[in-house]
Amino acid sequence: MATLGWIGQTLGELSSQDLLRTETVLGAESGLIPDGRTLLADGRQYICFSSNNYLGLAGDERVRRAAAEAAMRFGAGTGASRLITGTTALHRRLEEALAEFKGTEDAVVFASGYHAGLGVVSALAGEGDVVILDKLSHACLIDGARVSGARIRVYPHLDIERLQELLCREGSARRRLVVTDSLFSMDGDIAPVKELVRIAARYGAMLLLDEAHATGTLGPQGRGLAAELKESWDGLIQMGTLSKALGSAGGFIAGTKELCLYLRNSARSYIFTTAPPPAAIGAALEALRIIRSEPELIERLRSNVERLASLCPELHVKSHIVPIVVGPAARALELQKAFRERGIWVNAVRPPAVPHNKSRLRISLTAAHTAEDIGALASVIRELIPLGSSG
Ligand SMILES: *Cc1c(COP(=O)(O)O)cnc(C)c1O
Predict the structure, then answer these.
(1) Whole-model pTM?
(2) Could you say which DSSP state residue 274 is in?
(3) Which DSSP state fits 20?
């Protein structure tokens, strides 16, 4: 057998388990711009409920123009990492704007949210420390914990009592870091941020809150769930991405000045990668400006969430991310196909993105959807999903 024969064998196994992924190549025709509402594939237009472009800003003309202008003024690429030639005045301006948005002293922009999660966890914890994660934390946080060399403990999803037990039991660790999403990417449910802060602070542990899906969508003015806290606490480290509601690409950590300087000196995924391109930075800055000056965008997202919740109470809608859990991967794929035949673009999410036998359709709503779009989605759900079989 060829040396790489094992790869073909592995792919065959994935395929037979309905776990092989392939990418959809979107059409090059006009109408390709991600407006947060439609999608063009296989020569057909769909209503798209799969994108994290929650406010439609990836396709907003002002955001695209800002990207183009930033590229014209600052170049297509940065030429080196942030610490070498990769920090333009634009990068600093975005970091200052993010810090102001998040109500922190400073912020650090990474090449992606994945880089930010990987870098911050492995910079804050190491040998002799313990990282305690919610079971459904995003992969970049789990990977960060793995490369950190710290001991890893996991508590059942949202189980605050178990978290408290673990903090208690791990009292001898040098440092303790609690890690969780604020809005969970595949379940659409929300961590009890106030409780988490109270418990982490009581045990002298740090708390990393990944607000990837909440930044620009939840909390006062879309500042994320941490912005709902009454008091500030230096142990709270906020993470977000520029790639979802902000419609661009990149990730960030917001916190104290010292934390940010420390990350610039120690987060390997910050130091050893080329700085994000000016176009992405310029786009994110403009998106942030729009979010702050046009609160009606977030209001529209909220009312779409409410609309789906009232049309489909059986879904127990908690946020703009709505899972329809169906179990076997094959069933999720069947449903994906049936939805698409009806003009609704949704994606089957299968292991390892979700636990075994918890395959699902993941529906994401955006501010760009119309009332008719939500109505169309609801009637396809009612046609294809037997009542009481999801959740
Ligand atoms: C998407 C996501 C990330 C990664 O962000 P990117 O900018 O896409 O790399 C990190 N954490 C969570 C919870 C996410 O959903």
Answers:
(1) 0.96
(2) B
(3) -
Ligand 1 centroid to Cα of residue 242, in Å, is 9
DSSP string, 187-250: T--B--HHHHHHHHHHTT-EEEEE-TTTTTTSSGGG--GGGG-SS--TTEEEEEESSSTT-S--
Closest-lying ligand 1 atom to the alpha carbon of residue 117: 10
Which amino acid is located at 343 in the chain? G
For residues 296 and 323, give the distance between their C-alpha atoms in angstroms, rounded to a whole number: 25
Catalytic residue list: 185, 213, 244
Residue type, 172: S
Rounded distance between C-alpha atoms, residue 170 and residue 128, angstroms: 11
Query: Per-block average pLDDT, block size 10, for the chain (391 residues)?
Result: 93 95 78 87 92 97 98 97 96 98 98 98 98 97 98 98 97 96 97 98 97 98 97 95 98 98 98 98 98 98 98 97 96 97 97 93 98 98 80 49
Indicate if ligand 1 lies below 6 Å from the C-beta of 215. no
CA distances from residue 87 to 78, 94, 242, 279 in whole angstroms, order as listed: 8, 11, 17, 13
Any ligand 1 atom below 6 A from CB of 243: yes
**Does 150 sit in the ligand 1 pocket, CB within 6 Å?**
no
Q: What is the pLDDT of residue 135?
A: 97
